[in-house]
Amino acid sequence: MIFIVLAVLILILGAAAGFYFREESYEKAEIVFKTEDGEVKFLAEAADTAGKRMKGLSGRESLGEREGMIFIYSKPGRPGFWMKGMEFPIDIVWIKEEKVVGITENMMPESFWKGKIFYPPETADMVLEIKAGEVGKNNIKMGDKVKIVK
C-alpha cells in the first residue's frame, strides 16, 4: 500500500514539475510609455496565463535593454511578486488602465531568501518586469501613460 501511495506522489510531483519547467511560447508585445522625455518602447513577452505568470522570469540569466515581461490580468488586483529562481535584479512597473500607478526599483534576487514579497501601491491590471536601472535610465514616472501593442 505504501508503495502505491509513493508512486502516486511521485507521478503528481513529476507532472507538477513538468508543468512548471516546460517551455511555453510567449507572444511578444510592445510596451510604449509616454514620458516627459517622449516615447520609450520596450519589447516584452506576455505572461497571460496562470502558468506563465507563475514561472515569470525565473531561471533566465538576464534581460536585454528595453526587454521585459508583461503580466496581464483580467481584472485589477494586488498581485504579489517575489524573486524565486531569479538570477538578476529587476525593476517593476505597476500599471492600471494604461497608467503607471507604482514603481519598484532594483529588486534583488536574494530578497526571495529573506521572504520579501513586493506588492503594488494600489490595484494593477498589468505588471512589467524590466532590467534593473531601466526605470531611471528611461525616466519612467508615476502617472505616465502606457500603451500595449500586440
Would you identify the regions where 5 or more consecutive residues have pLDDT less than 50? 5-9, 17-22
Question: Which overall shape is indicated by the principal axes computed on the Cα atoms?
Answer: globular
* Total discrete domains: 1
Strand percentage? 35-45%
Total of DSSP H or I helical runs spanning 4+ residues:
3
Q: Which structural class is indicated by helix and strand composition?
A: alpha+beta
- Approximate helicity band: 10-25%
What do the pLDDT scores average to? 87
What is the CATH class name? Mainly Beta
Give the quaternary arrangement of the chains: single chain
Strand sequence of the main sheet, in spatial order? 5-4-6-3-2-1-7
CATH topology grouping? Jelly Rolls
First-to-last CA distance: 52 Å
The CATH architecture category equals: Sandwich
Largest sheet: number of strands, sense, barrel closure: 7 strands, mixed
